[in-house]
Amino acid sequence: MITVTAEQMRNIDKYAIEKIGIPSIVLMENAKNAMINYIPLDGYEKYIIVAGVGNNGGDALAMARDLILEEKETYIYIAGNLEKASKDFKINYNILKNIGGNIIVLENKDDLLKLKENLGEDSIVIDGIFGTGLNSGIRGIIFEIIDLLNSSNAFIFSIDIPSGLDADTGAIHGTSVNADLVVTLGLMKKGLLNYEGEVMVEKIGIPKQAVEAVLG
Fold this sequence. Notes:
By secondary structure, the protein is an alpha/beta fold. It has a single domain, classed as 3-Layer(aba) Sandwich (Rossmann fold). It is built from 7 helices and 9 strands. The chain has helices at about 5-20, 25-35, 55-70, 85-100, 110-120, 140-150, 210-215, and strands spanning about 5, 45-50, 75-80, 105, 125-130, 155-160, 180-185, 190, 200. The longest helix has 15 residues, at about 5-20. The chain starts with a strand and ends with a helix. It comes from Miniphocaeibacter halophilus. Its EC number is 5.1.99.6. Keywords: Isomerase. It is an enzyme of class 5 (isomerase).
């Protein structure tokens, strides 16, 4: 099995986008299509999306879109500054607004209480706060959000890597989401090799040429 660092995976993505010509939003849609199959449409009352404002969060919002179209009770919580959102995040964010998605930006204690009220055994959480680019300690309201998720009885699904886990080493940056299931995208990340939860690898349409160009 091929394993990669966060930088190697970024370079593979970059090659696929810039050299081969695959639009980044297509890769995001492919990622959504691969991951949504792991989300059961029965057995849960509430679907809780917790998304950062990068492309990991964009993946989460794309999944939220499908859940809304399936008429599931879906709550979307944004953890981060929308003014700093990535291009592909904004595309999915605007779609969700246009279809009436239930979106709450987590900014204060009252917002955290709204999240806490929705977390329970009848809930499944999709964690898209941070991806493989995280390289500093988590603090402030993001720390509190992750603490809420970990102290709940909800089933937690993490996109690509549990938020807070180092993609290269598996170290924890202050705190980390305790995911029941991780679906990592493209190739296995080195930091997930010893992860205690279940980890699956899903392809997202990156051609072999991109992998070979970066890894040799």
